[in-house]
Amino acid sequence: MLCEEKLEVFENGFEDGKFKLRVEFYGKDAKRLLLAIIRELYLPDYGEDYVYPFECAKEFWGIYLDPSEIVAEEPNFSPIKFVNRSIIDRLEKTLKEIEAPEEIKERIDLEKAEIVKLKKALLALGKDFILDERGYLIVFSKPSVRELVLKYLGALDEK
C-alpha cells in the first residue's frame, strides 16, 4: 500500500524512496518496531500532531499504537567478549527456525556479526541485519538503519 508519495508499506516491511531504504522482518511480528521507525523518519515533515505515513501504516497493518507508546531507548546490551561455537550454534538454530526466503538467510553472516547479550537473549548485529534470538530477523538496506532498529527494540517486547 502506498502511504506517502515514496513510502510503500507491505505485509512484512516497507520501502521508502525518499530515504532510499527498505526494512523487512521475518519470524515473529515486528510491525510495532517498524511503525516507530516510520514515525521517526516522517516526524520532521509532519510534526507531532498527525504523522500521516505512520497512521496509514497502522491502518494497513491493523495495529492500534498511540504515539505516546513509542519509547526510544538507549540499547542496553553487553558485548560478548569471547564468541564460541555454542553461541554461534544458538543463533544459527534461531535463524533456521525463522521462516524467511533462502536468499535472505544466506546473506546472514553470523561469523562476521557483532554478538551482544540482552537481558533475555542474544543479538547478532550485522551491517544489514539484526537477528534476535527471541525469533526476530530484521533486514535493511542501509547500515544507518541499524541504530534506529536498536533504538526501538523495546517495541518488540510490547504486544
Automatic annotation (TrEMBL):
Domain of life of the source: Archaea
UniProt cross-references to InterPro entries, sorted A to Z: PH1570-like_domain, PH1570-like_sf
Domain PH1570-like, chain residue ranges per copy: 1-153
Pfam families for the chain: Ph1570 (PF09638)
Record-given protein name: PH1570-like domain-containing protein
Organism: Thermococcus guaymasensis DSM 11113
Source taxonomy: Archaea, Methanobacteriati, Methanobacteriota, Thermococci, Thermococcales
